[in-house]
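Regression report. Comparing outputs from two consecutive submissions.

Submission 1:
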Amino acid sequence: MDEQRNMLIAAVLSFVVIALWFFLFPPEQAAPPQDPAQQTATEGAPAPGDADAPAGTGTVASAPVDRGEALARAPRVAIESPRVVGTISLKGGRIDDLRLLDYGETRESDSERVTLLSPLGARDPFYAVYGWLPTSENPVSVPTANTDWQVESGGPLAPDAPVTLVWDNGEGLTFRRTISLDEDYMFTVRQSVRNDTGTSVALAPYGYVARRGEPDTVGFYILHEGAIGKFDGVLEELDYDDLEDLEGMAGPGERVQSASVTEAGWLGFTDKYWMATLIPSPGQPFTGVFKYAQRDDAAEFRTEMMLPVRDVAPGQTSEAETRLFAGAKEYATIADYQERDGIPRFVDSIDWGWFFFLTKPFLQMLLFFNSIIGNMGWSIIALTLVIKLVLFPLAYKSYVSMSKMKKLQPEMEKIKERVGDDKMKLQQEMMALYKREKANPAAGCVPILLQIPIFFSLYKVLFVTLEMRHAPFMLWIRDLSAPDPTSWMNLFGLLPFAAPGPESILGILSIGVFPILLGVTMWMQQKLNPAPADQTQAMIFAWMPWVFMFMLGQFASGLVIYWVANNVITFVQQYAIMRSQGVEVDFFGNVKRSLRRKKAQS
């Protein structure tokens, strides 16, 4: 039967694509703990403005210490806001201690809060530094990574309560740094220098975000983690291996890549859900720099923002203002900064993937439904209904065409008997019949093929967006971004032992309730049509639902819920449309005949 053949082609193509996706991009697994010996940190490492610490030098790295001990090495100013807490180190004036109050390491309510920024000396140092660079023609003392700043006013840092730090170089230059924080994740850093030397001074303000040692990453091919920047509308993404392979040389052990921005941009480091990003004031040109430096045995990764040199006349003060986003990649928050503060394409800090034209609206619709329903699982089902509604005209046309093909089966059998083994004649007669009856044998493939980019886009949304992290559905589904936690191997929790996890070879066989529902609903769709007469086709169709069931069993449960809902809606649509076209749909008869056929073959 031609419609069965076309369905087979579409199903096999879908299988091949998803199989390729599964083996190239396996479901996320927990990253192994990093070897502490690879974690390096030294206090007072060289910065762009460190006149007393030439680039490429440093102390031999030591093992990381307890985070509390690392924080205690320098006096600090507290950060206290509704969404973040932490401290600012007065040694170097670094923003190097930040935790996100709205997010836990696990979904348990008493879980430790997510740590974003950490000081030198602790595990995974991640921090922001600001300063001034003197020109070679006009060398002066400037603040370095070892400078001891004083609190001039304010503290603790909170929304509408800025902190001002001050340092006098003893040679007529007074440096100030005023740090502000909004209600979310945006720091504003205003640097100023007062010149009382009697002569003009040329200085260039800068800021950079640095990481010491390569951080733990998800390591998943479809997700970018590492340096990111938007320069005059062009998005740059470099993972940590890319940074190590930069070709530009800036000094002993240093490799760089820079881009001079003439309009607007931003740069920083992104993780799966969190980000630290440098942002200039609107209209402020800057040079963005990606840098890798080997500090003895301590690898350092940097993104730097260099502002133009400015001449500070005697008795004058020069100021430079930049911003630092340090927080969670919440779509609504980032989109608001983009719109309100004019940060160009800031939402592209979220990795939308190849099908961004689908991924973005899918997330926006999910957030809209969630604002009404209050549950991301039901929002996924609502999105499925919308997708099926948008595709309904095409699906209707497809199922009508398939119904016509069913009605033409007796006529097609007569043609086969009449022409015998003459394949050319058979093809001509069939094409004439299709044209006369306005039937399209390939129409059944189109809705299935359209599901492929939709599937990939929704998978991307579920995998990379923070809004899906730890989002519950109902009953045992407490995290839509994780696989269904139940398993048939322990009778869905009735037996007193844990089922194999994804790290085990048996993990692919350990599937839960929703993957099983996926297989069952795919099987139900098949039984709307009689089994193909060809035994090979019939065998492939028979195995297809169960192969998909195990392949997708370790994918995000939100994606499997979407697929189950899609199968159920498709079943209802196809049944109703075929009946409306006068086609008899013998679902239970097809099931019985399939079982009898299997029994006869065995």
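Submission 2:
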Amino acid sequence: MALALLAGSARAQPLDGPIITRNFPYALPGKEIHVWKHWDAKEGSYRLGSNSDLVRSSSDLVALETAEWESRKRKWGALGEALQSKLSRMGDTGSVDVVVSMKYPEGVVYFDKTRESGESMREQSLQVAALAPVADVEVFLAKVGLGNKGRISKESAVANLTKSQLMKLMFADEVASIEPYFPGRPTGTPAQFSTLAASAYNHSSAAVPSGAGAGVNAATLEAGLNGDFLSCLGITPSNIVDVNPGASEHSMATWECLRYAAPGAKLGNKNLAGNFLYNAPGNQDWIINNGIQTLSLSYSNSGTPTKADMLFVDDFAYQWPFPVFCNPTGNGLLHDDGSGMAPDYQCYNAISVGNVRHVNQTYFDLSATSNPDGACTQTKNPPPRWGNCISGSGSDCAGDREMPYLVAPGHSPTNIVSTVQGREGQLFLDQCDSYDWFELKFCGTSWSAPVVNGIAADVIAADSRLINWPEKVRAVLMATAQNVTGGYWSSQVDGKDGAGVVYGSAAVNFASSHSTTYPNSAPIQYGIGSGSLYASDFSTPDIIYKIGIPSSKPAGKHLRVVLTWDSNPVLGGDNALSDLDLKVNYGTSSKSSLSNDGNVEMVDIASNLIPAGSTMDAHIIKWSNRIPSGSRTNFFYYAIAWTWVEDHAP
């Protein structure tokens, strides 16, 4: 997400967006195109600037993107980019483990939750969940003379394929994608869980309120928990707990993070059965039937969760019960060139969660100097849709989709040395809720993701207006997060802290006290607006929300406006993101956030620049419609929120 702000000065940032280099090696080989968003004062609107006569409007750019995508598909079929480069290096006798995923039938259309009742949404979601792929993956692989190494979801199985088999399979009509297979692994190390939750909720060592998250169905997808462990915690397995007899220490720790962050929630766990994917068999029905409202897992897939799995997550933005997904970014592993890895889960319609240390419950820290194993979160922005680089390290990087979205405490605030024997980095159950520890120096998003999961449950429990609106929850958590690496955002920096460290109590207070607002309604001081946007809406004027500034502005805080919206996934196909922008007028000045490849825009404005008692206009600019053919919707949801946020985390 591109986050335009004031970099701490009294000067408004220019209204033009950054110059982005775009390469289209298949549609326009050898040609480099520069594009930017330019404010036209005469017209009073944004225009697209370009160094090419081929791109004179946003619709021209979308047409060129589509041509590039279709050209790639004609050459590589279902083969993902990671395998495209590997194919040329493979010998005739070599083979590789891959995930083969089947397509889904087209023609399914989701209801719009702004127009339909909850019960009709639930019934339709169950009908959609029952849809089968165009072919059973195991039957298909056997039919074409290929064996498989096990089904990992309704549409996907792992197979070991040679170069000739890959070349044959990638053009099969039934196949949606072929990607490298990486087995999952834990993404964290032990921590003091009550301290992590308290740090995320209160930014202190105080406990999370005992009733926080009351009535919300919050769940983890893990390797399994046993009944003895749950009973030891005083929890009787309920109808939303799927218990596996072989509990994992890692899963028990994850459960503890969720439990401490949302002590009043109705907690659930679904056994992942060893493949560590959201779309493991049976999960879709389980989420819908049990009304799961917040959800996380804590297993990494070595930087490459399957495309089918990420499409599954993003598709749930349109399915009841519209859960908030909290995804781990991974543990800051490094590429050979020393650059940080892209986040494991690059889903749009979810919250990507990085890790931050809360040192002795005194201050938050992301620096490498005070952490023996380097900075906690080292993930880089994912590559833009038509590029092949990690953001910030290549000429064709858009560089304006910030990930992670948030950071949260995910490991012990101090190094703890155990006095008992055991394996380093492992957690053991000892007389119910007592643990033995080993020296802890690492960071990990295994625990950060369930902590944010619990905070999301707390936010939903705080106000019923956020139920079934993951877009609102995303906006609330980002609007109230506190910056760690700097006072304000810089749109030119790959921010390791996302929107900042999650601040649960501020998010809960904002959720419970905000006013619901609508376009062109009366000014609101603390507001949340939401709605659905259709393809036809892109030809209509800006959506304008009015912000009321109090006569006495909050001390030590600045105004933050956050806009977030959903992508339109095509199961068995692509995941397209329409482009919205945000412009906020204050006094005689304006601030804009103009991302190209992100689904969050955010503007921070210093308090001293805003006239007390004034009214500000927040414009949602409908820049590019990319709702794809074959999508299960011809619309997407958005949410906008504004509040006053602390200038910096403690």
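Expected: both submissions complete independently.
Actual: both completed, but the second showed a warning that disappeared on reload.
Relevant detail on submission 2: Residues 58-76 form the longest helix (19 residues).
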